[in-house]
Amino acid sequence: MPKQRHELVFGSFITPSADHVEQVVALTRLSERAGLDIATFQDHPYQPRLLDSWTLISYLAAATSRIKLAPNVMNLPMRQPVVVARSAATLDLLSGGRVELALGAGGFWDAIEAIGGRRLTPGESVDALEEAITIIREIWDTGTRGAVRMDGTHYGLAGAKRGPAPAHNVGIWVGAYRPRILRMVGRIADGWLPSLPYIEGGLTGLAQAGRHIDEGAEAAGRDPASVRRLLNIGAPSAGGSSPALSGPVTQWAEQLAAITLEHGITGYILAGDDPTAIQQFGEEVAPQVRELVGRATT
Fold it and tell me: How far is it, in rounded angstroms, from Cα 108 to Cα 111?
């Protein structure tokens, strides 16, 4: 069983539909009332049917009081890293430390290019993401004197001023599936946030991906357990939501606890806009998972 260093967190993954603005706000508030720790939203700036994620979570920060908020995951090719850093820090300060930052290297390149983004190869996108994470952390590091400079392949800074620093240690989580980017997650990121249905091989693939993260962390001299592992899981359906989970949402506690104990996953984000599922996930499933994992690790 992997060493557990992080508290278990549970969240929602709500569709930021521009046609159902009231529903998006209502589901976020429901997530908070149900006791969930975080509400997350996809980020696809090339999709006019979706709300802009930064504007949305800024509004929701004012419409809630406790729950954390995050993009899931932010489309980095459409966002300038210094601006990302300052936007995240600003909202974290305004919300009292309720922002986390999940980033993606990009993937829908036709759509990205169609609205003026730069098309990158898979390898280039990983390199760009690593440079961006370095920049974001440097901008937040107000304890270091001097401006931020970088002569990177994809980003260059010629003396960017540091700050502001966020209110708390904002986690940088990365959506990743391939070995190279997984090793990068282990090397420099705070966490890993994939979607279970997209992991090749299901739970078998989850274990292999974790090994790549461990390799990257060890090569960088980091404790692999310091890298938080989270997971987007599908909403419940009649036949089960994913190859790994089955049955109604109220029966998932044992399955999720087993995944935590075997694979070290300490965050579960429920995708879908079913208010009943969100409420059950927060009020019934999350406490049961915490209890099962607690009993097994004490």
Answer: 6
